[in-house]
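PROTEIN DESIGN WORKSHEET
SECTION A - STRUCTURE
LENGTH: 53
TOKENS:
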């Protein structure tokens, strides 16, 4: 449940610092690895943002 909670917060807010603090991790890198977010997923998220909606 803890990992799912962190993943869900990240997907909704896109704020890894918030998730890091909620999970009491010492670094963003640890948090991203813990919730299963890869570099490729981060890149795809940024590429798929439509700034002209």
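SECTION B - SEQUENCE
RESIDUE ASSIGNMENT:
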């Amino acid at each position: 449940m803890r990992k799912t909670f962190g993943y869900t917060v990240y997907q909704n807010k896109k704020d890894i610092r918030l998730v890091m603090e909620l999970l009491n991790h010492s670094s963003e890198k640890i948090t991203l690895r813990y919730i299963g977010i890869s570099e490729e997923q981060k890149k795809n998220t940024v590429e798929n943002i439509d700034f002209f909606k």
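SECTION C - NOTES
The chain has a mean pLDDT of 88.
The longest helix spans residues 2-13.
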